[in-house]
Amino acid sequence: MSTETLADERDEFGIPIVPAVANMSQRKRESIVAAATDEFLTQGYAAASVDTIAAHARVSKPTIYKHFGNKERLFLAVVAGCLPRTYADLRPLNSHIAEAPDLRAALIDLGSEWARILLSDDIMRLRRLCIGEVGRFPQLGELWYRVSYDMNNGPLIEAFAELHRRGDLNVPEPALAVQQLVAVSIGVPQLVKTFRPDAEFDADELTRLITSGVDTFLARYAPGPSTAP
């Protein structure tokens, strides 16, 4: 199947839908995705080589084109596959904040998980790649926003809305509160590591930043007379 005849089906974000090929094993597909992920994260889109990807995946270049169509479709499919995994581990923690017996401790634990996952080298490389390519592929920005909202922001917004209804916090604008919590906890380390890949934050420093951010957040949204029922 040539690149011209491969159906260009895309999802709501403009990401190519790549169906399984009948004669391609799952192992071979995974090898291509793994090799492409490494190549794109290391070289960026423009400098990435499909020849190199094929060599590392131990498949032929025509096999990649037969399955993915072209370099652009391969890039979008690979990055789109990585993004949901970025936030997947955080969803259970976000979803249970409203039921936590100790809200402060739960938010500090959540901030620590944010730091562990979102400041990891692999995720930071993916973040830099998307920032660098969002002008060429704006759908990546839309997808990143949606994934982060659905898996991270959305559950927290619901949790803060519930805490507001119960009177445990005074959070009239839970969506804004989520943004502020991220900003005062891991916002600075994430920004620094985005543009300074070699920057390091030791565990004690991160704990201090996260704890201080959570305390600032809780002081701002402490329950008071104006809390809605």
Distance between the termini: 61 Å
What does the main sheet amount to?
none
Contiguous runs where pLDDT drops below 50 for at least 5 residues: 1-5
What structural class do helix, strand and pairing data support? mainly alpha
Approximately how much beta-strand content do the residues carry?
under 5%
Q: List the secondary-structure elements in sequence, H or E.
A: HHHHHHHHHH
Q: What is the percent of helical residues? A: 55-70%
- Molecular shape: elongated
Whole-number average pLDDT? 86
- Number of alpha- plus pi-helical segments: 10
Describe the structure.
Helix content is 69%, strand content 0%. The protein is built from ten helices and no strands. Helix 6 packs across helix 10. The protein is elongated and about 65 Å long.
